[in-house]
Fold each of these.
Amino acid sequence: MHASVDEHSGTGTTLQAGDATETTLDTLWAAAQGSGWPARGLDSLLEEAERLAHQLRPADRLAWLSRLHDTWKRHHWGFSTQGKFHLLRLAAHWSDWALVAAVGEDLSRQAPLPGHESQLLMEALRNQGRAEAAIALAVSRQLAHPEEGWPHRVRESLLRWCALRDRLGWIDGCTWGDDELLLEPLGHHHLPDFAWQYHDPAIAERCCLPSFGSDQQWHCWLKDSQRFGDQWTGAVIHREWGFIGSVSLILHGGLGFFYYWFGPDFQGQGFGPRAVGLLLAAAQERYGLHTCYAKVFDDNLPSRRALEKLGFEDIGVSAIAPDDKEIFYRRGAAVERRRMAEELHWLMGAMASATRPAILLRAHP
């Protein structure tokens, strides 16, 4: 699985070291860092970065995006129109939808966007959880350019997404969140964003998720998770950095089981507990969630601390081998151990999980 990017041709940059054919994204970064990212050289820098966008390694993505965000905030007034277009397309290559939206909306105040860039802006709005704004933009484009067929297709695609979002909407899509985060159902259009954050193999291992050897495998996995009405798999959208992770809740009656993961750049910053708190509050308010379980590897101390912050307690139960390194946590009103065993066994069975808790079920007297 990979985040696909288009390759663009470009000319040399005044910041490059040596001949244009020798320039890589790494040498471009080093040259830009060494020169302090001067406003005067931004056009050529961004043009060359756009040409080399396919070279970006996931581990380097946040450093580039942070610098681009900072440069835009400090020097947006000094960008030429052409430089803004380079920045918009570069940000789209790297799924930086907040920057695409900021630059696209800035350009739109000067003149209508060309077709490709207009479509990128619609994609950015959708991926920020602003699908209704993207639909309005598609309608405006359709009215202004009736000869173009693509705005109608984009609008129909957006309407289908909104219908799916609302059908899966344990949470009201983009309306459920806080000042930094919002949650919405995970959609097929999230694949590139998902891939940027999922690149660390430890995520799949820790969460017992597939490694996803292809895009098609990921789409099939997501489709399967959406077939049943008792599971909600969501995208966690940061209002500046976009997709940063995922949360999932399986709900049977008032019993729930959840897991979550975040990209390496966004771990350990409190986003997990906040996102899970939003999810559980929604499930409790609207669907009567009263008790929730989670499991975690016994050596995963950060996740264990995060669960405790959310009010979960280690119930002293591990899984049966070969999963005996996993331990269970619970949040809910205190119950007798026999009742806890019934809950946990019933929940694992309802989930068709291969993991079984090492706690005996006892017959009622």
Amino acid sequence: MSSDIFDVVVIGAGQAGLASAYYLRRAGVSFVILDAEEGAGGAWRHAWNSLHLFSPASFSSLPGWMMPAKTEAAYPSRNEVVDYLARYEERYHFPIERPVAVTSVRNVEGALEVVADGRQWRARAVLSTTGTWRHPFVPDYAGTSGFKGVQIHSADYVSADPFAGQRVAIVGGGNSGAQILAEVSKVAETIWVTPQAPVFLPDDVDGHVLFQRATARVLGGASGPKIGSLGDIVMVPPVRDARDRGVLGSVRPFSRFDRDGVVWQDGTKSDLDAVIWCTGFRPALHHLQDLGVLTKDGRVDVDEGRSIKQPRLWLAGYGNWTGAASATLLGSGRTAREMIPRLVAAL
């Protein structure tokens, strides 16, 4: 165990961890970032090959340094985001240790102790920014285990190539579902299964407009007509192409699986070779179990990012419950700017 006691241990070096580190550095406190990944980029390292943001670089940047962009209208690719995050942490020389997979955080006298791989770090405060990628959610359908086809979550989707010539159901109505459908439908016969009819935004509305409106609504300052929500489908070029090809139609959920595919609510069946679950994620907070702070739904009760049950614990980057739009690149910076001064004042 290190004999030092840090002011703050940050768990996770994705976008929320790096944005927080920027403001911790400016505050002059001692901190270390423990990251489970082999390299920079956080969850973006695992996104599918063709993924692009649906906001321009100027609305997808962390505090202090703008993401480089080829043109103002360009939507950065997954590789460009990973490269940006790598250069960002190098630019500010953040104290990052990796790969370090934190398994537990526990109370000790006057501090919290973070445990990983037989090592311990003590801190006056712990900031958890582990995100959601390591906790993909798949809904529970009857017969799932008996289905003979392939099932993967969008967390494990890489490209459409393995599905060429197959019958594939894409399940989930968000932007990931729409973008993966757009790609897979070029090489396979697809069915898009969504809880309700997807809402498609006008072609000239992209992610930065949604971010601004969603943030204003969360903070109670929105006015004027509602433009959309962060769950509505942004018409990025691949999705527009899918619309032009006539493959954006969706159907409501099936009732169960059988060996060869799915059974619909009316009893009819569709044979499938594969299912891609685009059904989202849950907070990856297993490392906090020993603190006794997790709720039944796997979250932590917080007041402006600070745990109510354990005041030395702070959280960022898990969604609106840890800051307005805090799971986005731009939102993580705004959350850190507001939260870190409160964290530092509480040390």
